[in-house]
């Protein structure tokens, strides 16, 4: 299996929990799981890189991603497989659900990486999202605030999609 690195930003702990669960299901070591508040942007050791963020307020990147995104912009992602995931609130912020995941997507989409792990919008309730491209989410979106009962199934399904793409 390919070497996987997981990079996440988490304010409330939800995105960290999702990152840890994904890591466990993919067999990724804790040494390959990084909080972007303390991480560099050297992805040379990895064939596959997962980026995770929460969406804050009205579509904003998670605080640590605000500065880390510049590192991603400058990084070499050529030939990598990249998957995106994030947490959001589809009820209180239904017009900006998962927007931060979309913001990361638009930074990396033209950097020579293959973006994997797109997810159908079926079964989600929201009004708008920057994370929707070609009628599907660019990655996994989790709403632990309003749909915690769907989190495990969504993660399991996504991990299976990733395994096929890796």
Count every helix, treating DSSP H or I runs of 4 or more residues as helices: 4
For this structure, the CATH topology is Rossmann fold
Share of helix, binned: 25-40%
Biggest pleated-sheet summary: 7 strands, mixed
Radius of gyration: 14 Å
Instruction: Give the helices and strands as they follow along the chain.
Output: EHEEEHEHEEEEEH
Helix and strand composition category = alpha/beta
> Could you tell me the mean pLDDT?
94
Q: At the fourth CATH level, what is the homologous superfamily?
A: Flavodoxin domain
What is the second-level CATH architecture? 3-Layer(aba) Sandwich
Number of strands: 10
Question: Beta-sheet strand percentage?
Answer: 15-25%
- How many individual domains? 1
Could you give the distance between the termini?
Answer: 7 Å
CATH class descriptor name: Alpha Beta
Inertia-based shape:
globular
